[in-house]
Structure prediction request, 472 residues.
Amino acid sequence: MSLNAESTAFRSALEVIRAVEPRVADAIGAELADQRESLKLIASENYASPATLLAMGNWFSDKYAEGTVGRRFYAGCQNVDTVEALAAEHARELFGASHAYVQPHSGIDANLVAFWAILADRVESPALKKAQVRQVNDLTEADWFALRRELGNQRMLGMSLDAGGHLTHGFRPNISGKMFDQRSYGTDPATGLVDYDKVAEAAREFKPLILVAGYSAYPRKVNFRILREIADSVGATFMVDMAHFAGLVAGKVFTGDFDPVPHAHIVTTTTHKSLRGPRGGMVLCGPELADQVDRGCPMVLGGPLPHVMAAKAVALAEARRPDFADYAQRIVDNAQALAEGLTRRGAKLVTGGTDNHLVLIDVTGYGLTGRQAEQALLDSGIVTNRNSVPQDPNGAWYTSGIRIGTPALTSRGLGVAEMDQTAELIHTVLSQTTSGESKAKYVLDPALADKVSKQANELLAGFPLYPAVDLG
Ligand code: DSN
Prediction:
């Protein structure tokens, strides 16, 4: 029997790796087997296509390419130029942006590139101007002092962590929390929704240099037109981190006021979540910030990863195909079916539902902490992650929520009928788990966990992961 191209490619790669370090080859094989068997509901994960995965495994990894297309600090970058230019072109076309910078290695990197670009563009500093025009050697000690003070004394307004905001939007565990004087906007305690009047009030009082929008655990659409008006009213630069929902923007599920690209001065994203590309980041902006954004390496980033930029070009080309819009719509249909199935069975959801790719269950309704619920679900073959809920009484470690998302299962082909079955499995586990003697301990009958695990596997059996890949 002749093998198809995907099976041949991955089998051959493993054979070559096995000849050097068999344990790595075994771990790669085991990872595929584990992923095939897990009901993956982590909202930030997905399955990239075989073409995207294969574009990363080659000699582009060997090349240094600091600089930008056609203007590198290393010789011999003509092929890197080809893939970086292709990735940027696909990104511009897909999102309707005038400039795309595809070098960031992750979402944090993309955000740091954006922060630098905004600081460099907005902070009035004679010392900074000198530094920009490469007269760094002319800077006096007093200039340096002034520069550090001016750059390090800027304000950022972003969504609070427990309302679903992200660490990189000025919170203490991330360097952005050291760089900026940060203030947060939360959500309305009654509805769980962003209260735009409150955001406007906070912006008027705080007068931020940067207003940041974007989230990793907010289950609703955000109106970027209103937020841009708020930013304009206080002279702030409006930045959107669309990492979680970039696939919904690419697939034209979020359009008009809900598409960040026409409204924000600068947009950042990862490429591996709902966008279904390789693990990496990206920045989109208009011409005003493009020059500063392009200084991302070496200002903020280490050398670009040409093999990942090649994979970004492949994944972005895939996202420009008509079937990606269908995929993006199915992500949301599935999340809504999951939310309805859970609500019907009595689960308490933050905001009462979803209009994006994720659902946040308040598991205090089941008498559990997020930590207990996460582990009980994992014992039952259901992979999720615990997450804070607004005004969380259990803090950021134990939490009171479980975040679930549909991009990965939608990639496998599961639809709304299977989401109802998934809701049944989740509800069964959570309603049969009881709290133990600490916020981490819980009691769940192992026989029930085993039964649910088998049911999860039966559900997945009809939707094979990487069906064309047979490792033998
Ligand atoms: N770690 C990602 C998530 O799970 O949402 C965000 O950075």
Q: What stands out?
A: The chain has two domains: 59-319, 326-460. The chain has a mean pLDDT of 95. The first helix runs from residue 5 to 18.
